[in-house]
Amino acid sequence: MTEDDKAIQEDIAELKRRKLRAETLQVERDIVLNERRHFLEWLRTIAIAGATAATIIKVFGGA
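RESULT FIELD:
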C-alpha cells in the first residue's frame, strides 16, 4: 500500500466520521425541537385552562 493509498483511506475514514457526526447532530436537533414543541403545547394547554377557569369565575361570580 502506497502513501497515497493510506492518505486516501484516512480521508475516507475522516469523511465517514464527519458524516456520522452530522447525522448525530441532526438527530439531537430533532429531539430538541420535538421537546420544545411539546413544551409549547403544554404551555398552551395551561393557558387555555387558566382562561377557562377565569371565565367560569367571572360568569359565576366566584361563588
